[in-house]
UniProtKB/TrEMBL annotation:
Signal peptide: none annotated. InterPro entries: Beta-grasp_dom_sf (IPR012675), Mopterin_synth/thiamin_S_b (IPR016155), Thi_S (IPR010035), ThiS/MoaD-like (IPR003749). The gene is thiS. It comes from Corynebacterium glaucum. This is Sulfur carrier protein ThiS. Pfam families: ThiS. NCBIfam families: thiS (TIGR01683). It comes from the Bacteria. CDD domains: Ubl_ThiS.
Length: 67
């Protein structure tokens, strides 16, 4: 399917938010990552059950430390 991730079009076989995050980031820490699908924040507890469809727009954000 074709979706947009962080403003970039991409083809993916990932059918859930969880699968897409793992495909995009690899192993994800318990805290510090947020996902929105079509402008709606998806709680981490719902990543595995939130399905993606062709044309979805996904924003994946990660917190970074710095000084």
């Amino acid at each position: 399917m074709r979706i947009t991730v962080n403003n970039e079009a991409r083809d993916t076989q990932a059918d859930t938010v969880e699968a897409l995050v793992e495909e995009t980031l690899g192993e994800v820490p318990e805290a510090g990552t947020a996902v929105a699908v079509d402008g709606e924040v998806v709680p981490r507890s719902q990543w595995a059950s939130t399905k993606l469809v062709d044309g979805s727009t996904v924003d994946v954000l990660t917190a970074v430390q710095g000084g």
